[in-house]
Amino acid sequence: MEAIFTRRSVRSYSDEPVEKEKIDKLLRAGMQAPSAMNKQPWEFLVIQSKKTLIDLSKMSMFAKMVASASLAIILLGDYREGQSQKFFPQDMSAASENILLEATELNLGAVWLGVHPISQRQKYIKDLFKLPEGVIPFSVIAIGYPKNKESNKFVDRYRQDKVHFERY
Ligand SMILES: Cc1cc2nc3c(=O)[nH]c(=O)nc-3n(C[C@H](O)[C@H](O)[C@H](O)COP(=O)(O)O)c2cc1C
């Protein structure tokens, strides 16, 4: 699948807005992810307001590019009914990666910004959006049209020494 091999973290974006249809596809891709016991614990907070993007870019010193992104999608786990959070990281990672791959497919650039398990970043998002108890921030994905058209490109990471057949 081409998107797997060409996806890169893209951190600089043009001013071109991302079309509504593409945002819809990104969200659909996130929700299409596998999840433990098919619980689909995710929620998606879509941010397009410049002011809020700037606020969000202050989450950490590694999130500055959010200020120049066309949009950000914040992935949240919804555990308000006291469900088990045992597979929270796996479920939310699968949804995050699906969004990155769909972004690549749609000629967008995106980068995954880690939130969980850094409690300081989680608190920043909880406070910024006044999230209810039990709604847990997991990741932020900054998205836009890449400034540099070559942004998503193949880098070979295959390493034969990482592979074990039959025995270790
Ligand atoms: C859990 C996780 C957290 C990450 N957090 C950040 C981040 O805070 N800021 C950032 O610029 N990139 C972040 N990245 C992107 C990685 O730096 C990037 O995936 C890695 O350098 C490999 O480059 P590539 O995505 O272009 O293949 C994160 C990636 C993952 C999977």
Q: What proportion of the residues is helical, as a percent range?
A: 25-40%
Oligomeric state of the chains? Answer: single chain
The overall pLDDT average reads 97
Strand content: 15-25%
Strand arrangement within the widest β-sheet reads: 1-2-4-3
CATH architecture: 3-Layer(aba) Sandwich
Q: What is the overall silhouette?
A: globular
What top-tier CATH class fits best? Alpha Beta
Bound small molecules, by name, code or SMILES, are: flavin mononucleotide
How many beta-strand runs? 4
Number of domains: 1
- What does the radius of gyration come to? 17 Å
Low-confidence runs: none
The SS-based structural class is alpha+beta
Quote the distance from N terminus to C terminus: 28 Å
SSE order, as H and E? HHEHEHEHE
Plain-language structure description:
Helix content is 32%, strand content 18%. It has five helices and four strands, in the order ααβαβαβαβ. The protein has helices spanning 2-6, 20-31, 50-56, 88-105, 119-129, and strands at 42-47, 71-78, 109-114, 135-144. The longest helix is centred in the middle third of the chain and has 18 residues, at 88-105. The protein has a four-stranded antiparallel sheet with strand order 1-2-4-3, sandwiched between helices. The model has no long low-confidence stretch (mean pLDDT 97). The protein has a single domain, classed as NADH Oxidase. The protein is α+β, with helices and mostly antiparallel strands. Bound molecules: flavin mononucleotide. The site of flavin mononucleotide has 9 residues, from strand 3.
